[in-house]
Design goal:
The chain is of the alpha/beta class and about 280 residues long. The protein is built from eleven helices and eight strands. It binds zinc ion.
Length: about 280
């Protein structure tokens, strides 16, 4: 078995970098990478790359902070058409982001970003359900103050009203608390951990108690020019570090963590897991 990175954005790197990124991933036993689109155009690139590189699988969606207004009928039609492609394995990246600088931007037509995001999230969950796709979603809170947290309540409302768990999914780059992690599992979702597991106490607490069949791993890698040392940019190969931390927390071997989390990801991908299974068992 190999690792699967369930959420990355390496489609955004310079295409000359892809070969090196994939090689470093392969050397760290990452056999498959799900690349998530953040706009319609970016989603199209994910679908194209997934058809060119066997180790890449695609997610399609419009990220809440990349919305420029309400999703248009043309956006929905494009996402719907892409979601039918067999290389598309998840609806992602979609979700809710209530950071202040996101909500403060002027909106077209005067609607609120809170409403625009909720409607776009709901519409994209509808596309996912139509195609039987799991929803891998983003929830980002306004700040560190739990009292001021409006993003999770807003996300729960959409997830529940639209029956998003019907085909499963995952809370990507999970940064919430133990209570939220448990609620996700109760609802039928996976919890996806990334590098913050290495340093955040509350994530380590959640990772210690969650059912082992509900944890998946991701890098969320994207180009990080703000880090001067190129080798410090997060890449899919960093999954091995996240897995080592999880192994330490759970008192398991890294090999065990790999097998369990990869099986979980394959379960999540459901009907569209065939290509990933071949890559991971190869
Ligand atoms: Zn992402």
């Amino acid at each position: 078995m190999k690792f699967i990175d369930v959420h990355a954005h390496i489609q955004q790197h310079d295409s000359a970098e892809l070969g090196g990124i994939l090689q470093r991933a392969a050397e760290a036993s990452v056999g498959a990478i799900v690349i998530a689109g953040v706009t319609v155009v970016d989603s199209r690139r994910c679908v194209e790359l997934a058809s060119q590189y066997p180790q890449l699988l695609a997610g399609v969606g419009v990220h809440p902070t990349d919305l420029t207004g309400p999703l248009t009928a043309a956006d929905v039609a494009s996402l719907d058409e892409m979601a039918a492609d067999r290389n598309v394995v998840v609806m992602s990246e979609v979700g809710i982001d209530h950071q202040q600088h996101v909500l403060e931007r002027p909106t077209p037509g005067g609607a609120s970003w809170v409403d625009i995001q909720a409607e776009a999230f709901q519409a994209q969950i509808g596309i996912a359900r139509k195609h039987g796709l799991p929803v891998v979603f983003h929830v980002r809170e306004p700040g560190d103050d739990p009292e001021a947290n409006s993003a999770w309540p807003a996300a729960w409302q959409v997830l529940r009203e639209s029956n998003a768990a019907e085909h499963g999914g995952a809370a990507h780059y999970f940064q919430g608390d133990v209570t939220t992690a448990k609620a996700l599992v109760d609802e039928g979702f996976m919890v996806s951990f990334a590098r913050p597991l290495l340093r955040l106490r509350r994530l380590q607490e959640a990772a210690a108690i969650l059912p082992m069949d509900r944890i998946v791993l991701e890098s969320d890698s994207y180009p990080q020019p703000f880090k001067k040392d190129r080798m410090k940019w997060t890449e899919p190969w960093h999954l091995s570090e996240v897995a080592s931390k999880l192994a330490e927390i759970r008192g398991m071997t890294v090999q065990d963590v790999m097998e369990r989390t990869s099986e979980n990801a394959l379960t999540m991908l459901g009907d569209r897991s065939d290509a990933a299974r071949k890559l991971l068992e190869n």
